Structure formats: structure tokens, C-alpha cells
Amino acid sequence: MDLDPLLLSRIQFAANISFHILFPTINIALCWFLVYFRLRHGAAKGTPAAQAWEEAYYLWTKIFALSFALGVVSGITMSFQFGTNWPGFMEKAGNIAGPLLGYEVLTAFFLEATFLGIMLFGRGRVSDRVHLLATLMVAAGTTLSAFWILSLNSWMQTPAGYKIIDGVMHADSWWAIVFNPSFPYRLAHKLLASTLTAAFLIAGLSAWQLLRRTANAGTHRALHTAVVAAAVAIPLQILAGDMHGLNTLQHQPAKIAAIEGIWHTEKGAPLTLFGWPNEKEARTDYAIQVPKLASLVLAHDIDAEIKGLNEFPGAHPPVAPVFWSFRIMVGMGLLMLAVSWWGAWTLWRHRKGSATAGLVFSAWQLRLLAGMTFSGWVATLAGWYVTEIGRQPFLVYGVLRTADLVAPHSGGMVLATLLAYLAVYAFLLVSYVLVLMYMARHPAMPTPETPQSPKAATPIGGPA
Amino acid sequence: MSFNDILPLIFMAVMGLALLAYVVLDGYDLGVGILLPFATDAEKDIMVSSIGPFWDANETWLVLGIGVLLVAFPKAHGLVLQALYLPVAVMLIGLTLRGVSFDFRVKARAERKALWNGLFALGSLLAAMAQGWMLGAWLTGFDNSLWPLLFTAGIALTLPTAYAMLGAGWLIMKTWDALQLKAVGWARAVILPMGVALVGISLATPMISPTVFDKWFSMPEFIGLLPIPVACAAAFYAAFHVISKPKVVAAGYGWVVFASTVLLFVLAFFGLAYSIYPYIVIDKLTVWQAASAHESLVVIFVGTAITLPVIVVYTIFMYRVFWGRASVLSYVAPVARDS
């Protein structure tokens, strides 16, 4: 059997990053939700609402901790795979990619990892104020981490601020590298994606708790917060996505041509809603199209010329995966818009009633929200495939080709590790979802215990 | 030497110290994981609690070490990690299983706890053995002939004992009564294999590599280096003395075991650093040949100089917060809450 190490290495990295991205996508925003729960808890001190916010904080801190562990371990794996599978990338682009990754480790990883211990287990050991500060540090750390890694990812999509000396990329302007053309759009798009993913996760799991009658006072608070957050974030996300698309048209027109299924350059290009991309014949079979709409959407002019895939021979991505992923992402976004606005409207109608009085949503609405629990994951992965597969056949767009940078391992060895990683990831993903459901069925907080250790209560001056 | 020449050396030092910090810090929590199967269920909870707040930050030192290798020495990064493809994959799977088990074991339904405890221990052992293999393969310059491979396998089998020793030392400080006594027993069980391994590796390294042999066994270097083995012997004796006399532990000197083991690791590290210098891949690639472009080193040097001291300060703060004996971890405050 002939195993292609390039393809296997690509699948391995894709599997790894797909698994990894699930957890930071939840946690970047979830941590800010936790800060909000903490603040509401503090503001409600002395009222029954304080206990409700505490309960919401308790359940979602546990989910945050679990997601964080999965994100950390899969992230470590990625940092090694740059070297084990893509040494060419670091040799040719390490001068630029290296410092960006280095700054992520130095400014973000240590911050979040260190304060996480205090955030999770430090209550009672530090004052409330220090504990809130620790929670803020973790939130800042996760967001900073997104800043650096998306800067690098964007630079690979729209490289800027570099010069090439003897075939190796060197930094020319760090400002231009960090704030490369696609970075602001991608960062906004990703942070909003995280907000939506966390919001639908919180809303979905809370709705499920209400259906299963395992809810507590905190469940209502969490559900309402999440529905409002989603309703606010989704129009912003659609706007950010549109601007990101226009930016892509300017810098990566081949990716747009693949997304839209535009095979030949044309004026007044139609928008293909659905169809079956047929790469061999360079056409979209069974296409349902709206005349001139692509030109209008992409260039804001019904007769504008849109470049087709024919302009980029040997330098455009495979069409079908990009085409389909994009439609899944957009479809999910529209579903999110409908569900969250319906939910927000329901909340608005019941605004006079007390939020703790009980059910505001109908059983059908709860089922719908519960069904959307992992919708953020679907949209995120689909969007991720659009942008990453859309960058092919390049690793650094227009400069370095993926095929030139892979390590020359035997196909069999890469296949062996790939299968091992896939087995571990499948096992962990199933475990994660099952444990989430288990925790949602048992949300009760333990009664606070006094520490079992004889000397733990008072910090002592030295190990004795 | 100009600043251009010194900069790669500075990064070599940062990378070395990050990896030393990793081996000591993650070493004790991997060691606790390796020892987990030998404890009762109640003791397992306390053992995991004693490392719960720390493990994540401990592991970040590995990311820093590998990050500096990537940032400052991209050529070596590719060479080393390609040669270590399989052990790296084994280590990553071990670290993954272990890292997630921390959370799963207390969050999954009770019947599954034994499974996650098992994966926790297995992951810790796999990671430790893979790291031992990586160290051995790196020291032998990725030589795949018989003796170097046996040497590498020897390190892979013995590094877990050294981690277990660190873990036992940690538990002696962080636990009390029956579990503390048990930890003393574990330390007694692993200290001799660890000592034999340490001596064996120290003697075998110069045999395997002529470069290392010349650096140690020529005059007057040999005399100058003598304090390293002597200090190692003293640290080893101190740890040995404390664990063979439970009274000394009861009198409050249990921390000596952990401190001496850490000292052994530090001394071994400096010995190793001396053996390898100025190579980053022995006999193949020097620090300067592997270094990345000067302007990239400068930009990351500035970041390191500013952030690393801050990281050290808040790490110390975190250890202060969780100072003293371990208590069973809880997400809720141990004192009465409001409402």
C-alpha cells in the first residue's frame, strides 16, 4: 500500500487542531461569563439571588476547568507537531512564526495556567478580591492567547512585513507582521464565534436541565444571560463575517472563488445558493443561483467583475470542501440568529415577571435550545475549514507551499501516530460530552467542608 | 564576543533553565501520578489534591522550553523533533491522558473513577518513560546502533524512578500521618534504583561519546569538576538518611528529601550542560549554527527579559497561596459563604 506522508501529516495536524479549537472556543468567552457571574454574585450579596449566581458560577467553573484541561493538553501536542511533522515551516518562516508563538507562551500561557489554580481552588485561601483578580487574569490570559495565535494564523493567510533572504523569511516590520491585513477581521470573527459557542453551550445545557427537571436557581440566571448574549453577538458576527469576506476577496481572491463556486471570471456573477461543485468539469452541477447577487454582495456593484478559479491555475484550494463548509457555517449562523432572537423576544415579553419565578420558555423552545447546545462547535469547525483549506495549496499564502515543508517520514509511521491520536481524541470527545451531561444532571453544590488537613487552614511559613 | 554571538548563548541558557524547571516541577507531579496505584482510594484524592493547583503551570515550562527551541534554534528544532518522532508522540499521548484525568476523575460518575485513576497513572508513566527515551536519544546524537540504543532504553526505564523519588519527596511535605509514612516507604523503594541509574548514566555518557569523555577526564578539568559528583553524593546521602529514620521526618525535616532530590537534578543538569556545550545536537550542530536570525532573537529577548521575572513572581505567589499541607480540593469556599 502506498501511503502519502504529506496527506497523512495534513490529516494529523487537521485532526489535532480541530480537536484543540473546540475547547479554547468555549473557554475564551466562558471565562468572561464566569467573571460576570462572579460580579453579579458580589452585587447581590445578602439576597437570595446571590446564591443563584453562586450556583451558576459553580457549575460553569467545573465545565471551564474540564474544557481548560482538554485545551491545554491538545495545545501542547500542536506545539510539538510543528517540529515533528512540519520542520520546513519553522526553517523557512521560524524567524517570524517563532517570536509570535514565543510571546503567546510568555504573556498568555503562564498567566492563565498559574492563576487558574487560584481561580479554581483558591477560595478560602485568598480574599474575595484577590480571587476575582485571579479570575480576571485567567480571562485576560485566554484572550491574549487568542490574540497572538490568531495574529500568526492571519499572517500565514495574508503575510506582510517580511523580506526573503536566501529563501528564508525574515522580519522587516513587526508592526506590519502582527497587525497584518486579515488579523483585525479574523480576531473579531473568532472572539464573537467564541461568545456564540459559549452562549449556546450555556443556554443549551441549561435548557436541557430544565427539561430533565435538574435545574436550580442558577440555571435560570445562566440561561437568560446566555440567550441575551447570543442575541447581541449574532448580528455583530454576521457583520464581522461580511467584512472578513470582503477582506478575503481583496487578499485571497482564489479562496472567495472556491467559496462561491465561481469557475470562470465573469461580470455580474450570480450567487450560488446550493449546487454540486464538479471540479473535473470546472462547473457547479444542479446549481440554484441568484443572478448578479455575488457581484453585489462581494463588490457592492451588480456588474462588478469577480475573478474565477481559472485565474489561479495550480494555486487555488480544492473547491468542494470549502464550498460546503462555508454553507454549513452560514446556515448555522442564520439558525443561531432565529433561535436567539426568538428567545430574546420571549424574555422581553416576560420582562415584568421575576426571572426566578420559573419557566419563561415553552418546552419547544427549550428543546430547540438544547438541540443547539453544540451548534457553536459546528459553525466554528466549518468556518475554520473554509479559511484553512481555503489557504491551500500554500502554508504561507503565496510564499510557501505546504508540500515543500513536510517532514520526510515514512507513511506507515505517520499513519500509526495518526490512528493513535484519533483513538484518544474520539475517546476524550465522547467522555467530555457524557461528563457534561452528567454534571448537568447533578448540579447541586457540595456543602462546604472544613479542610481535612490539620494544618491547612492557616498558611504556614515553611514546609514542616 | 559580540552581542550577536552572546544572544544565542543566552537563549541556550533560557531553554536549559526552562527545561530544568520543567523536569523538577512536572517531575514531582508526574512522580505522584506514577505512585498513585500504590495508595488507597482516599489517599489518591489527597495525592491528586496536592498537585491539582500546580500541574498546569508546571507543564507550561515544557511549552516554554520547546518554544525557545523553536524560536531561537529553528534548525535544531526540526532536526531534534523529527528524530524523536515516536517518543514525542508517546509522551504527548501520555501527557494528554494524564492532564484530562485530573478533571475527569472527580467529574465523571463515581463508577468511572477507577478508570480515570488508572489512565492518570498510565499517562504519567508513559510520559516519564518517553522523556527518558528522548533524553537518551539526544545524548547519543540519535545513534541507532546497539549500545546507544541500550543506553537510551536504560534512561527510559530509570527516569520514572527519579520522578517517583521527587513525587515521594513532595508527598512527604504535603501530607501527614499514614500517607506521609507511606510516602517515606515509597522513597525508600525508589532511592536505590535511582542512585544506581544516576551513577550508571554518569559513567556511561563519557563511554558513549568521546566528546564528553575528553571534557571530563583530562587535567585540570577533572579536579575542577570534582565538586559536582561530591555534592551529588552529599545530597543523595542526606535524602537517604532522612527516609531511613522516620523520627527525623516526624521532627519536621521531611522537606530535606525533596530539597536533596531537587539538588541532585540541578547538579545533574549542570553536569550535562557542561558535557554538551557548545553543541545543541551533540557533535552535529552548535548553538550558533542553529540560531535564528538576529532581529528575531532581539525581539524575543526583549519580551523574555520583561515577562520572565513577572512569571517567576506570580508563580512564587501561587505557591505561597497553596503553601503547607494539601487539603481536599473544592471549587467552593471552605468557610461559610454568604446568603
Mean pLDDT of chain B: 86
Q: What's the N-to-C terminus distance of chain B?
A: 66 Å
Beta-strand residue percentage of chain B:
under 5%
The major pleated sheet of chain B works out as:
2 strands, antiparallel
Q: Total number of helical segments of chain A?
A: 13
Multimer state: heterodimer
Distinct helical segment count of chain B: 15
What average pLDDT do the residues of chain A reach? 87
Low-confidence stretches of chain B: 335-339
List keywords for this structure.
heterodimer; A: about 475 residues; mainly alpha; two-stranded antiparallel ribbon; globular; B: about 350 residues; about 80% helix; about 0% strand
Description:
The complex is a heterodimer of chains A (464) and B (339). With 464 residues, chain A is mainly alpha-helical. Helices cover 67% and strands 7% of the residues of chain A. Chain A has one domain (5-247, 324-441). Chain A has a two-stranded antiparallel sheet. A two-stranded antiparallel ribbon of chain A has the order 3-6. In chain A, helix 7 runs antiparallel to helix 10. Chain A starts with a helix and ends in a 23-residue tail after the last helix. In chain B, helix 7 runs antiparallel to helix 13 (255-276) and helix 11 packs antiparallel against helix 13. Chain B is globular, with a radius of gyration of 21 Å. Chain B has one domain. A two-stranded antiparallel ribbon of chain B has the order 1-2. Classes of the chains: A mainly alpha (464), B mainly alpha (339). At the A-B interface, helix 2, helix 3, strand 2 and helix 13 of A face helix 3, helix 4, helix 5 and helix 15 of B.
Please summarize what this structure is.
The complex is a heterodimer of chains A (464) and B (339). Chain A is built from 13 helices and 8 strands.
